[in-house]
Specification:
Layout: E1 2-4, H1 9-23, E2 41-44, E3 62-66, H2 72-85, E4 92-96, H3 101-113, E5 118-121, H4 129-137, E6 142-146, E7 158-162, H5 164-177, E8 184-188, H6 196-214, E9 218-220, H7 224-228, H8 237-247, H9 253-266, E10 273-278, H10 282-293, E11 298-303, H11 310-317, E12 324-326, H12 329-344, E13 353-356, E14 361-367, E15 370-372, H13 377-382
Parallel strand pairs: 3-4, 3-5, 5-6, 6-7, 7-14, 8-9, 8-10, 10-11
Antiparallel strand pairs: 1-13, 2-4, 12-15, 13-14
Helix pairs in contact: 1-12, 2-12, 3-4, 5-6, 9-10
The structure holds beta-D-galactopyranose.
The site of beta-D-galactopyranose has 11 residues, from loops.
Protein name: Putative multiple sugar transport system substrate-binding protein
Keywords: Signal, Sugar transport, Transport
Signal peptide: 1-22
């Protein structure tokens, strides 16, 4: 997947900071029009003074499309973009696709009609987003994939993301580090197969868990496909797809509840008691945790997560979720806007590697991730200014 070429991030960061500072003129109050067209649009109208190229005069500079407003994760990104752009000279618009590739394409058409030069897009469905990206590329617009890769198309120029394989590795490692004894029932859950990240998360988790399944530490409790492949250290995409087909949550907390209930109903006593649960993100982790804690034959569970959503941080403080993988969205927004500004200034953005999206090697900027559990919630999320302590109860 990622061909790692270590280039100096620092260089890029200093470049970004000076551009933003340069861009801040006049205190502009983000004039946010809460009207909805194309499913959830927010317009940020900065001060009219424009210091960049004439061409974008009156038109939007940057269009931003996020998958859905129904998940706290993406509402976080919207807020972080708003924070980052609140006193910028660049005009941007944030649109949500509400889980529909048709909406996504319509959103792109709307932004194209408003004259954008840059499209930053986190696709609902990586492959289906190819049409939307092509519609932008046909107008000479630079397309930056955000967090999720746009796949099977040449119409994507850059990609900013977190190390998604490392997310899965961290989740798998957490279950291994907290495993006591052997034959521990292991319940596997995955994200949506339309999301390239879901494969990267699972690849990372499997690379750590598979040897521990093979040595008898864990027993797979809810997937015959995974059991059949338990001797395979490196799964092909199709093999991963066959497993994920049995355990996908489609990133939907309700679907996660239904799957968990079905698995617990069909599980025998030998698959109850003290269990380990691979949950792909926080939204699904909370609903799976609630479902397992409602089963009186489950005496304890260790469960993973991702995204450091506020509700899951409270679950972690309360001991109802074991960990989450923190992806500092401020960093991703900085990288995405840094690239956009560099391109608007006519320069070539720095990258740290590339991703093969099935049609080309997409130049990418990748950020690290941080494991958070009860021990370091305060250090990683409060002291870093990501959240206010007042948002939580029971925080020491
Ligand atoms: C992934 C993203 C995760 C997660 C999920 C659900 O692509 O990387 O952070 O939240 O989508 O929307």
């Amino acid at each position: 997947m990622l061909e790692v070429i270590k280039r100096s991030r620092l260089l890029m960061m200093t470049g970004l900071l000076s551009v933003v500072l340069a861009g801040c003129s006049g205190d502009t109050e983000a004039n946010v029009a809460e009207e909805t067209d194309n499913e959830g649009t927010e317009e940020v109208e900065p001060d009219a003074e424009d210091t960049t190229d004439e061409e974008s005069e009156g038109g939007l500079d940057v269009g931003i499309i996020l998958p859905t407003r129904d998940e706290p994760r993406w509402v976080q990104d919207e807020q972080r973009f708003m924070d980052a752009l609140s006193d910028s000279d660049y005009t941007t618009e944030i649109l949500f696709s509400q889980g529909s590739s048709a909406n996504e394409l319509q959103n792109v058409e709307t932004l194209v009609s408003k004259g954008i030069d840059i499209l930053i897009m986190s696709p609902h469905d990586g492959d289906a987003a190819g049409a939307a990206a092509q519609a932008a590329a046909d107008e000479g617009i630079t397309v930056i994939a955000y967090d999720r890769l746009i796949t099977s198309t040449k119409a994507v120029d850059y990609y900013v993301t977190f190390d998604s394989v490392a997310v899965g590795e961290a989740q798998g490692q957490y279950l291994v580090d907290n495993a006591e004894g052997s034959d521990i029932p292991l319940y596997l859950y995955a994200g949506a197969s339309s999301d390239n990240n879901a494969f990267l998360f699972f690849e990372g988790a499997w690379s750590v868990l598979q040897p521990k399944i093979e040595d008898g530490t864990f027993v797979i409790a809810n997937s015959s496909e995974a059991e059949a492949l338990s001797g395979t250290a490196e799964l092909t995409r199709d093999e991963m797809g066959s497993i994920m087909g049995q355990i996908t949550t489609n990133w939907d907390p309700n679907e996660a509840i239904n799957r968990a209930q079905t698995h617990l109903t069909s599980a025998g006593d030998d698959l109850k008691g003290d269990v380990a649960i691979l949950a792909p993100n926080d939204g699904t982790a909370r609903s799976i945790a609630d479902t397992f804690s409602a089963d009186s034959d489950i005496t304890s569970y260790v469960i993973t997560g991702q995204d450091a959503e506020m509700a899951s941080i409270q679950y972690i403080i309360d001991g109802k979720q074991s960990m989450t993988v923190f992806k500092d969205v401020r960093r991703l927004v900085e990288d995405a806007m840094g690239m956009a500004i560099t391109i608007l200034d006519g320069d070539t953005p720095e990258t740290t590697g590339s991703y093969d999206n099935g049609a080309k090697d997409v130049e990418a900027m990748q950020s690290e991730v941080i494991v958070v559990n009860q021990d370091n919630v305060k250090a990683e999320l409060i002291d870093s200014g990501y959240y206010e302590a007042s948002e939580f109860t029971g925080l020491d």
